[in-house]
Specification:
Elements (H helix, E strand, L loop, with lengths): L2 E2 L14 E2 L2 E5 L8 H14 L4 E5 L5 H5 L11 H5 L10 E2 L5 E4 L8 H5 L8 H7 L7 E5 L6 H9 L2 E7 L4 H18 L5 E10 L4 H14 L3 E7 L2 H5 L7 H4 L4 H16 L17
The structure holds adenosine-5'-triphosphate (ATP) and magnesium ion (MG).
The site of magnesium ion has 5 residues, from helix 1.
Length: 289
C-alpha cells in the first residue's frame, strides 16, 4: 500500500494503484474565542461545496462546530468518546451534514474527562491518529476543530495532523498569546509527530478601519512572512448569526463579506496543500490498493 500525502491525484504510477489518504488539518489556538470553530465550519463547508470530500471532526467538548452545522449526535448515541476509547470504530460515529460532501464527527461533552481517564499512558497523544487511519482513504480532507487549550485533545489533534492552521484575532496580545501554541507545535514535531507543519496563520475579526487591526497585520507579516495567509476574515455580523441557523456562511449568506473571505482562504489552502483544483463536482470516489 502506498501512502500519498501531498495530492489526491488518482492516476496510477508504474502500474500501482494508489491509496490516497486524506490530508489532516488541525485548526488550533489555545486562546479562546479567536474564530477556530467559525473558521473550521466555514472552510470545511466551502471546500465541500467546491467538490472535495471533507470530514469535520469536532474535537471540542463545547461541540460548537456540531451545533453550528445543525448536526445532531449519532441517532444510536455512539459518539467520539466511544470511538476515542476504541469501543466503536470512528467510522460508526460519522454523520452526514446538510452540505453535499461534508460529513461530521460530532463533538462529545464526555471528552472533558479525557486527561483524567487516560492518565500518563504511553502513546496517549496518538490515539486519534490511530482512530483516523481507517477512514483516511474515504476523504480528501479531515479538518479538526480544536478546543481552546493545549491539553490532551489538542495534542491528539496535532499528533494526527500533517498541517496546523492558526486563526489569529486582530486584537492586542494575540501575537504574544501565540508563543505558547508555537512551543506546543515545536514540542509535537520533536516528540511524536515530526511530519507536522505550520501551514499558515490568518487574521480573523479584522476591521480595516482600525489602527489596531492594521498594526496586528503588520506584526503578523513580520513574524510569519509567507506563512501569513493573504485572506483576512473581517468582523462580520453574518458570521456571528449563521451558527444559530445551523448553517455555514457559504449557505447562510454567500454574498456576505465573511463568506467571500472564507472562499478566498479556501482557495489559498487548496494552493498550499497542492490539492487537485480540477476536482469534479460531487467529490472523489474511494480508492483501494
Ligand atoms: N469574523 C467574525 N465576525 C464576527 N463574529 C465572529 C467572527 N468570527 C467569529 N465570530 C464570533 O465570535 C465568537 C467566537 O468565535 P468561535 O467560536 O469561532 O471562536 P473559537 O476560537 O472557536 O472559540 P473557543 O475557543 O471557545 O472554541 C462566536 O460568537 C462567533 O460567532
Ligand atoms: Mg471553538
Amino acid at each position: 500500500m502506498l501512502r500519498l500525502i501531498r495530492t489526491r491525484d488518482t492516476s496510477t504510477l508504474s502500474g500501482l494503484k494508489l491509496l490516497i489518504m486524506a490530508q489532516i488539518i488541525a485548526l488550533a489556538n489555545q486562546k479562546g474565542g479567536v474564530g477556530k470553530t467559525t473558521s473550521a465550519v466555514s472552510i470545511s463547508a466551502q471546500l465541500a461545496l467546491l467538490g472535495f470530500k471533507v470530514l469535520l471532526l469536532d474535537f471540542d467538548p463545547q461541540a460548537s462546530a456540531t451545533s453550528g452545522l445543525g448536526v445532531e449526535r449519532h441517532p444510536e448515541g455512539r459518539d467520539l468518546y466511544d470511538a476515542f476509547f476504541g469501543k466503536v470504530p470512528l467510522k460508526d460515529v460519522i454523520v452526514p451534514s446538510s452540505i453535499r460532501n461534508l460529513s461530521v464527527v460530532p463533538g462529545s461533552h464526555d471528552l472533558v474527562s479525557l486527561e483524567l481517564e487516560i492518565g500518563r499512558a504511553p502513546g496517549r497523544e496518538l490515539i486519534l491518529r490511530s482512530a483516523l487511519a481507517d477512514i483516511q482513504p474515504q476523504f480528501d480532507l479531515i479538518i479538526i476543530d480544536c478546543p481552546p487549550s493545549s491539553g490532551l485533545l489538542t495534542l491528539n489533534a496535532l499528533g494526527a495532523a500533517q498541517s496546523v492552521i492558526v486563526p489569529l484575532q486582530a486584537e492586542y496580545y494575540s501575537l504574544e498569546g501565540l508563543s505558547g501554541l508555537l512551543n506546543t507545535i515545536a514540542f509535537v514535531q520533536q516528540t511524536f509527530n515530526p511530519e507536522l507543519q505550520l501551514l499558515g496563520v490568518f487574521l480573523t475579526m479584522y476591521d480595516a478601519r482600525t489602527n489596531l487591526s492594521l498594526q496586528v497585520h503588520q506584526e503578523a507579516e513580520k513574524h510569519f512572512g509567507e506563512r501569513l495567509f493573504r485572506a483576512r476574515i473581517p468582523r462580520n455580523i453574518k458570521l456571528s448569526e449563521c451558527p444559530s441557523h445551523g448553517l455555514p456562511i457559504c449557505k447562510y449568506d454567500p454574498q456576505s463579506a465573511g463568506a467571500k473571505s472564507y472562499l478566498a482562504l479556501a482557495g489559498e489552502l487548496i494552493e498550499r496543500l497542492e490539492l487537485n483544483k480540477d476536482k469534479p463536482e460531487g467529490g472523489s470516489e474511494e480508492k483501494a490498493a
